[in-house]
Amino acid sequence: MLPFTGSLDSLSGALFALRTSGSLEYCGRVLTSALDELHWDSSPGSYRTIFIAGNESFGQGDVAPVNACVSAQRKDVVALLVWNDRLNQTYLSYLQPTYDTVPVSDLNDPNKVIQYRVVIDSMNFSAGSGLNRIAIKGNARLDRNESWDLVDAERAHPGFAGALERRRLPQPLRHLSPEELTALIRSKGAARDSIRAEITTLSDARSAWLERERTLRAHTAGFSLDTALEKILKAQLQARAFLVD
Known about the structure:
2 strands, mainly alpha, 10 helices, globular
């Protein structure tokens, strides 16, 4: 659905667009497609991994997962499987299908369509997921939007704004002189840096509190999926000489 990207918004949009029907899970085919169709970094020092999660048999589909795993090993890609079928036999529906309606006229209004999408997307967020997303948005190394954001594009490619055709700019920016456009980009960039610094401070404080809570509950609550994945990732990254803070 999406190539490798540094844009969290693009990734979030693709994830929210995913729909499942409760049918078969073709793990072998998915792994093979990811290995063959994505442009993997071939640098020896890079860490390459695929997370694949499901609750069905790993061997479904026309592509044998073992062959996909062998291919992953050859390409130095770690395939991490997250599987849990304990809830499969516990569902008992008692509701008839219902359909939420949206006025047809609203579908002709781009602003209202965007509003509906934001509301729907927000319904899929837990509080923790939302805060984690904000923390990532606050990290300039993790959230890059050169493809559409003028501030990021100018920082990644100095002189980009000056070389951009004026007709490609939004209407309010077309009348600005080169000096005014540069000043505006710098102003927006400085404001973003300030907000990101505040996000980082708050995120660090939250992380410290969560770590203390995890330590206190470790003997009784055990590992959650988040902590288990974090432990695995840290171990694998450190094995490849990455520094993990």
